[in-house]
Design goal:
heterotrimer; A alpha/beta; B alpha/beta; C alpha/beta; A: Rossmann fold; 9-stranded mixed sheet; 6 helices; C: alpha/beta; Rossmann fold; 5-stranded parallel sheet; two-stranded antiparallel sheet; 9% strand
Chain lengths: 214, 252, 409
């Protein structure tokens, strides 16, 4: 089974690699179209600015590649910035276009009272199931209100509530913490940095890829 | 209110974990990778790995340790000590670090923070501030792992680093560090009231009573401890339990 | 270079560095300070045929050959002989409240059940942190102390002479420091005096370290008037007219016979307990309220060693000038032996800090020795031994360094 982690000079890929290794898979790091299209599962990692991320995806000609891949219905997971870029656009710095695979936009996490709502949101926080049930997703068998690790200042504002896989509370605000649209998954949090729970989520993704092959 | 993070601070010299007092002294207390793994398995929320002697030897040499740590530890790892160039940050990130702590270089060249955050993102850059009390409600920032005074006021410097783009502040009290006499409450209060980026408090924790005192009286977001863990004064689960019992939310 | 360079002070002509630590063969052994006069030939640390210094050799023996349980037993036996039962003091611990004396006094009282009286020979000029630590030694450490401050006028004059005649400003201080233990013991009817470490740790003759008892010649004399201070005898000071013999009371070593009759014994705790100066630091912080200096001490990387006297940095400056050995070398050599840093790290630190000039208290020092900057440098430069220093483009540089980048390396 072949898992590809997209390498576009954005983000810490080593942790992602190690996490997959820990669950028994040896992923390939690549930005080669053939490699990506022939994968059984693809991960788009990323941290930092939306514009910079999109710039690099364009630099490596990955925008179309990703769209082609997701059209094949094979499992895909975007993590943190990788999830944000799935959306139509972001308002960070200036309007920047995203991959447009999920309807909605990326906005800044709203905060009211500065001293109690600091940005970036750096914290372990709970994920909660909403309309979409977790079985048969990457959150299969994960307990409600499990803590996972977040570090971000921007969030995704989805048009379609059914595509929200989990939400998380930030002070008084409930935001989308993970996404599922058919074969496309997104995690605002970092499963590769979320201890044992995170490793199980990654394992779930691997299992979905395996199931899909059959 | 976010969950409070309980962080293990591991100071390293060559292949040893060391523990000083007032950031002084190189007593060996263990192996970095063994301790990192142990704390991870015992539910610590994050690990901070500091090269304790980078300033002396004009080097930074944690790459191997970070690489190994990343293979077995799946929580955020912050690395610091001797980060002087953009290259150093890249190397540490490539080795597997998630966040980079910077002190000396940023005081000498404040633009370094801005440059780093532009390239790597704010969430990746932690401003490490090392503070020594000089009079009532006044602290001076030190560099070179607490050896060289700078004449800079800590609270003012904290505000500056926020403006420059740092994602978090790791605030270490020289006066309390290694003493196991509790955190410097006034220091943490003063800085947390002055900025709106997350603050990790470091220096002075003996056990959860100290953590409670800090968390109930200030607005910090995370506590970092070394002595408590390296000298086995209290287990991570006991610390978290005590905090929970007192109304402080933590990751279980 | 075939010309043989003159070596002052009778120092060995060839400069060598220990292969294990970083000390050089120019390091002088302890002398009987009140006999110290100009032109005296120095005894130096010994290097064996493998190029290893005696301090390292001693350290290895310490690591392997010594049964510390046995030594602890010996200590307990010794203390049992002297322990008082009527509440009187039973051991004198000389010291400043620095990490070593803090450890010594506290452990003797609280672990070994003795009743120590600490005695401090006052530094020339207290630093704030030195004073604070001394006070904390009492208040937090729970100990009794007598602070003995000698007549400042005389002390300053002697120090001035010592600086200009011997380039050894600490010489008068050391005379008093060595004497105070036994002198106070005699005064308080206490028989036991306990110092911290033995200088063999640092390179005196090893035989000295198989004996826990300090050589009586260091602190007793039979002829007070011939004692020399700054190279000038007591008699000469008196003859000049400003001082009388009374003024020298703090420096007059107890009479040997009196000490023997009184049964005074001076021991080193370092003989009985495995001495680690860094661990003394930890102990002192945890038990006697000791605090390291907030900033790095000039001339070295350390923050907790010898921080109570503003004149202290100038002692090390003079050892650098006379022997090519600065404060950093002393600190680093000890830490290499105690396995805190590697030899490479020590060499790196020495290169970085050893020749650093102590600016912080320079003006105060000049005032203390009543000299101008010109006079200061004149004396300094007069004492640079040609076999250690070379003037290159108007700048003085070491001929040999442990990092092999001296002018002659």
């Amino acid at each position: 089974m072949k898992i590809v982690i997209i390498d576009y000079d954005v983000g810490n890929v080593r942790s992602m690699l190690n996490a997959f290794k820990k669950v028994g898979v040896n992923p390939i790091l690549s930005n080669n179209e053939e490699e990506i299209l022939s994968a059984d599962g693809v991960i788009l990692p990323g941290v930092g600015a939306f514009a910079h991320g999109m710039e690099n995806l364009n630099k490596y000609n990955l925008v179309n590649t990703i769209k082609k891949y997701t059209n094949t219905n094979k499992p895909f997971m975007g993590v943190c910035l990788g999830m944000q870029m799935l959306l139509d656009e972001s308002e960070e710095f200036s309007q920047t276009k995203g991959l447009g695979l999920i309807s909605g936009k990326v906005i800044k996490l709203p905060t009211k009272n500065k001293s109690h709502e600091k940005l970036p949101h750096v914290s372990w926080n709970e994920i909660i199931e909403k309309r979409t049930k977790w079985n048969n997703t990457i959150l299969k068998n994960i307990e409600q209100q499990s803590d996972v690790y977040f570090v971000h200042s921007f969030i995704t504002d989805l048009k379609n509530e059914d595509e929200v896989l989990s939400t998380t509370q930030y002070s008084n605000y409930e935001f989308c913490s993970s996404i599922k649209k058919d074969n496309i998954y997104g995690c605002q949090f970092h499963p590769e940095k979320s201890g044992e729970i995170g490793l199980r989520i990654i394992e779930n993704f691997v299992n979905i890829c395996k199931e899909n092959i059959k | 209110m976010n969950k409070i993070r309980v962080i293990a601070r591991i100071d390293v010299k060559n292949e040893h974990v060391i523990k000083g007092i007032h950031l002084e002294g190189l007593r060996k207390v263990g192996n970095p990778n063994e301790l990192a793994k142990k704390y991870y398995e015992n539910s610590i929320d994050e690990i901070v790995l500091m090269d304790a002697v980078a300033a002396y030897y004009d080097r930074n040499s944690l790459s191997e340790i970070i690489q190994k740590a990343c293979e077995e530890v799946f929580i955020p790892i912050t690395v610091g000590g001797g980060i002087r160039k953009i290259e150093d940050i890249q190397i540490a990130l490539n080795a597997g670090a998630d966040k980079i702590a910077i002190n000396t270089q940023s005081i000498n060249t404040p633009e370094f923070i801005t440059e780093a955050t532009k390239i790597f993102g704010s969430q990746c850059i932690v401003s490490s501030i090392v503070a020594k009390k000089i009079s009532d409600n006044k602290w001076e920032a030190y560099t070179d792992n607490g050896r060289e005074p700078t004449g800079k006021d800590v609270v003012e410097w904290a505000k500056t680093v926020e403006k420059l783009g740092a994602g978090e502040i790791m605030l270490t009290s020289i006066d309390k560090e290694g003493t196991k006499k509790g955190f410097d409450i006034e220091l943490n209060k003063a800085v947390s009231e002055a900025v709106s980026i997350p603050i990790i408090s470091s220096g002075g924790m003996k056990n959860s009573d100290d953590a409670l005192e800090l968390l109930l009286n200030t607005n910090v977001d995370a506590i970092a401890t070394a002595s408590t863990l390296h000298y086995k004064l209290e287990s991570i689960s006991d610390i978290k339990q005590k905090l929970t019992l007192n109304g402080i939310k933590v990751r279980v | 270079m075939s010309e043989k360079l003159e070596a002052y002070y009778g120092l060995p002509n060839e400069v060598k560095f220990c292969k294990k630590c970083v000390i050089s063969n120019q390091r002088p052994s302890s002398t009987i300070e009140f006999k110290n006069e100009k032109g005296e030939k120095k005894k130096v640390i010994n290097f064996n045929e493998d190029g290893i210094c005696s301090a390292c050799v001693y350290h290895e023996e310490k690591e392997k050959g010594i049964d510390w349980e046995d030594r602890d037993g010996k200590l307990r036996e010794l203390l049992a002989q002297f322990r008082s039962t009527d509440g009187s003091y039973d051991v004198i611990v000389p010291g400043s409240g620095g990490k070593d004396s803090a450890y010594t006094a506290h452990i003797l009282k609280y672990k070994y059940g003795m009743n120590p009286l600490t005695v401090t020979w006052a530094p020339h000029l207290y630093t704030d942190i030195g004073w604070k630590n001394m006070q904390e030694w009492m208040h937090t450490g729970g100990l009794d102390n007598i602070l003995y401050t000698p007549n400042g006028k005389l002390h300053q004059e002697m120090t001035k002479n010592a600086f200009h005649n011997l380039l050894h400003p600490f010489q008068p201080f050391i005379v008093g420091q060595r004497i105070i233990g036994p002198a106070m013991a005699k005064k308080f009817n206490v028989k036991l005096v306990m110092y911290g470490e033995n200088q063999a740790e640092y390179g005196n003759a090893i035989e000295e370290n198989t004996n826990p008892i300090m050589n009586m010649n260091f602190f007793s004399s039979d002829d007070a008037l011939s004692m020399k201070f700054g190279g000038i005898s007591m008699q000469d000071y008196i003859d000049k007219g400003t001082y009388t013999k009374d003024d020298f009371a703090p420096y007059i070593a107890p009479n040997k016979k009196d000490l023997i009759d009184a049964g005074v014994e001076v021991h080193y705790l370092g003989y009985y307990l495995n001495w680690d100066p860094q661990e003394c630091y930890y102990y002192a912080v945890e038990n006697t309220g000791f605090e390291a200096n907030p900033e790095r001490t000039e001339g070295t990387y350390s923050k907790y060693s010898s921080i109570d006297d503003k004149i202290d940095p100038f002692h090390y400056l003079t050892t650098m000038i006379k022997f090519g050995i600065g404060r950093c070398t002393y600190d680093a050599a000890q830490e290499v032996r105690n396995d805190k840093i590697t030899r490479e790290e020590a060499a790196y630190l020495i290169k970085k800090y050893d020749t650093e000039f102590p600016h912080k208290y320079f003006k105060e020092f000049l005032k203390y020795i009543d000299s101008t900057e010109e006079e200061f440098w004149e004396t300094i430069n007069k004492h640079r031994s040609p076999h250690i220093w070379k003037k290159v483009n108007g700048e003085w540089r070491l001929r040999h360094t442990v990092t092999k980048d001296g002018t002659d390396d």
